[in-house]
Amino acid sequence: MNIIEFLQNLMSQVPFFVQPLIVAVAAAIPFLEAELASVLGVWAGLNPFVSAGAAMAGNFASVFVVVVFGARIRALIVARRAQRAELVAVGASASGGANSSGYLAEPKPESKGVRRFKKFLVRFGVPGASILGPLAIPTQFTSALLVSTGVSKSWVLLWQGIAIFLWTTMTTLIATGVLALITG
Length: 184
Description:
The protein is mainly α. The protein has helices at 3-12, 19-27, 33-43, 48-94, 112-132, 139-148, 153-183. The protein has seven helices and no strands.
């Protein structure tokens, strides 16, 4: 038995209305994503439009959650750093320019990875990072990185949605073509 027959037999045991939900849940998993989930859905016998739509919805839902919570976490961290900087500045002015340890407060330097990602972001922008990102890392990770650097939630969601649509459409078309070649 080949993989396509196995997937079709497996999917036939599930009610029709649950099949797209399985594809959507699979698409929400990082590294599996909408691209592979739609391929599995097509090969399992789902209509390519249903498979692609369910995969896009599942992947975008997980990206949405990452972006919303990532933005909230970033806002809390930025507010906490600002509060600490204010406390250090008050302490430094009270002690003649030095903090409690006797040294001037200096900002923490950025890591090499953050500097590299920001350079990539400046070079290609959010659209390039979103569209090319799936070649290297899952969309959920790309979204988290973009939000953590201060890119607005709506901009990240727009370009991640476009990237998910483009990649899922491409892989679904390829999967449909391959299935047509294999099954004749």
